[in-house]
Amino acid sequence: MRVSEQDFVGRDVITVSDFRREEILFLLDTAARFENETGTPLAGRVIAALFFEASTRTRLSFESAVGRLGGTSIGFAEAGASSATKGENLSDTVRVVEGYSDLLLLRHPLEGAARLAAEFVDIPVVNCGDGAHQHPTQTFVDLYTMRRECGRLDGLHVVFCGDLRFGRAVHSLVSVLALFNARVTLVSPSFLRLPAEHRHTLESNGVIYNEAPDLESSLAEADVLYMTRVQRERFTDPLEYERFKDTYTLDLNVLKRASDQLAILHPLPRVNEIAREVDGQSHAAYFRQAHYGVAVRKALLALLLGVAGEVPK
After folding, report:
1. Model-level pTM?
2. Which of 22, 136, 269, 284 is surrounded by the fewest CB atoms within 10 Å?
């Protein structure tokens, strides 16, 4: 089915499963157009960013995207700067902010918060991370990075390593890999294993996957290594975090087993799961990945607000 810009106008972006393969590819193609875009299609538009949880790359790349396209950003970067500290509930907050803006970006520690917000407002809502559930715009950035770094999306062998239990970026990405005939290897300690619901998604979509405890032996045939940090903020027991935080460290010695074409991605921030010595290697794509986020989010905002057509093809 042919995709057009009209298919995106006014839509909510809650999970990646809401988007078909053709729509994702259309978004990525649009992002390529927007990489060096300097026009102002968002002039007069106001984007509200309500971040109830800490963020650097997602919030700042969206703010950069808005500013580079001539729009205006409003909002807050932590829950303590909002009326949530006074007891205001999320539905009231988003209903108020709807009157100030044309699109709502929401990050919240509770799973399902973005979907709830979308039920109360008529402007587009973009999920910028809801607890350990999903982070759809990160997935779009990840796919864009894979295509840029590997030259294709179809048929890649993707190795996920680290915190697969709480990593919402991982949960979003594995749910769409079936659309691109990927092969998947999951590397984690048993406590941080990919949740059953996401393993079931892989199985039900026919994705070939295996689970392995060892990172080094998983790299020989990998096209993409997706590293993740062990997320301190998701642990209720600090001792459990201390037990697992150093399970995997990617360094030059581990990389000896990797193919020359391997691309290393990481949603960032990193702690100590990737040694600094890896940064200078051609494999290291994670900072480029963060930078690609601006182009992808420019394209997404323009599509949702119906102004992507103002950018020359």
Report:
1. 0.90
2. 269
Q: What is the pLDDT of residues 289-310, one digit of tens each?
A: 999 999 999 999 999 999 997 6
The β-bridge partners of 264 are 225, 284
- DSSP alpha helix (H) spans, 121-187: 136-150, 168-174
Do 266 and 165 lie in one domain? The reply is: yes
- In 145-297, DSSP assigns E strands to 157-161, 183-187, 208-212, 224-227, 263-265
**Could you list the active site residues?**
57-58, 86, 107, 135
Tell me which residue range forms the domain holding 219.
136-290
CATH number at residue 168: 3.40.50.1370
Are 87 and 66 part of one and the same domain? yes
Q: What are the pLDDT digits (tens) for 238-265?
A: 666 556 566 778 999 999 989 888 999 9
**243 and 170 in a common domain:** yes
Q: Are residues 148 and 49 in the same domain?
A: no
